[in-house]
Design a protein that fits this description.
Layout (H helix, E strand, L loop, with lengths): L12 E3 L8 H15 L4 E4 L2 E4 L9 H8 L5 H5 L1 H13 L6 E5 L5 H9 L2 H4 L3 E5 L20 H8 L6 E5 L14 E6 L4 H11 L3 E9 L8 H13 L5 E2 L5 E4 L2
Parallel strand pairs: 1-2, 4-5, 4-7, 5-6, 7-8
Antiparallel strand pairs: 2-3, 8-10, 9-10
Length: about 260
């Protein structure tokens, strides 16, 4: 082994948006002290995840570097880059399995767009099914997000994937909207609806159709503010002999054996 091979790789850092901060000034002070106390080694502080002394491999990948440096991604997407890295890793890993892909809670289609950039659905002969309410009304229990203020939210997502016939966009509540179309076999699923009722309903339909070796990524499973989802999802997974792994990013990961 050469001397260069034993040297640490170039340090990378990322500082982005963190959520649920009650006192931003104190948080910034604490983060500055943490940076000083660790002596400038690699650090990640975004999306409510603070770590240091990690390789941060995704920051070295050309695809993710371009997302972080370009204008196409907003500050929130850039801050959630570790979540995206995990999602795309498993989306690509499942491409050889039988079945289609589903995303439950696609919002503006941002994450789905990233998946289509890494998985060639046309070549694979798979479909990518996107489901969402595409709206919010006063009194609705699901989280209100800025995208819901766009009255053409659904139409804009359809237009976004107009050049990709393998992407099927379905409007309506989950799981009731599955009556409009739902794959018989699923290789990969991404569940991100911020509410226990549609997520539990979705999991009951997805798990029996999930191929052996297939993966489900839950976007909110590990977030304490959405812990009601963990309460309802764990028993459903157990019924099928599965368990959900909580990740430091706040995501949950289910691998069907």
């Amino acid at each position: 082994m050469t001397a260069n091979a034993r040297q640490p790789i170039e340090p990378k850092q990322l500082f982005g948006i963190n959520f649920n901060i009650r006192d931003q000034a104190k948080f910034n002070m604490a983060l500055q002290l943490l940076r000083e106390s660790t002596g400038g080694i690699p650090m990640f502080a975004a999306d409510n995840l603070i770590s240091w002394n990690r390789n941060l491999s995704f920051l070295r990948d050309d695809y993710f570097s371009a997302l972080l440096s370009g204008d196409e991604s907003d500050a929130v997407e850039k801050s959630c880059i570790w979540r995206l890295y995990i999602l795309l890793y498993f989306a690509e890993a499942c491409s050889h399995l039988e079945g289609d892909y589903v995303e439950l809670g696609c919002h503006k289609g941002t994450t789905a767009k990233r998946v289509t950039e890494r998985v060639d659905f046309a070549t694979l002969g798979k479909c990518y099914w996107l489901y969402d309410l595409f709206g919010w009304n006063p009194g609705d229990e699901h989280t209100h997000l800025p995208g819901h203020d766009n009255p053409r939210m659904y139409e804009d997502v359809v237009d976004r994937f107009a050049d990709q016939p393998a992407v099927i966009v379905i409007k309506g509540s989950v799981p009731e909207s599955f009556s409009q179309g739902f794959p018989e076999l699923i290789a990969f699923a991404h569940i991100d609806m911020n509410h226990p009722d549609p997520e539990s309903g979705a999991l009951r339909e997805v798990l029996p159709r999930l191929s052996a070796g297939g993966t489900i990524v839950f976007d909110d499973y590990g977030w304490w503010g959405y812990s009601a989802q963990k309460r309802v999802l764990d028993p459903i997974a157990a019924e099928h002999g599965c368990s959900i792994l909580e990740l430091p990013t706040g995501q949950g990961l289910l691998l069907k054996r």
